[in-house]
Amino acid sequence: MPETFMDMDFTLTELDHRSADGIEVFLLWSRNTNRLLVAVADSRSGESFEVHAPAEKALDVFRHPFAYAA
Questions:
Q1: pTM of the model
Q2: What is the largest CA-CA distance in the chain?
């Protein structure tokens, strides 16, 4: 069984990406489901998480993923 949404969906398109201080944030769109996803990876700790982003809040989720993950 796949561990993350990103592992399952091979039709993801990267819409935006940013990185700072070892943390990378990706805004992704699935062509199969037409859903948006924000994925965060911390290279220092090795931890990562994903947040589904409603279209009307996608940029806010991208800018503040930790607030939406809580």
A1: 0.82
A2: 32
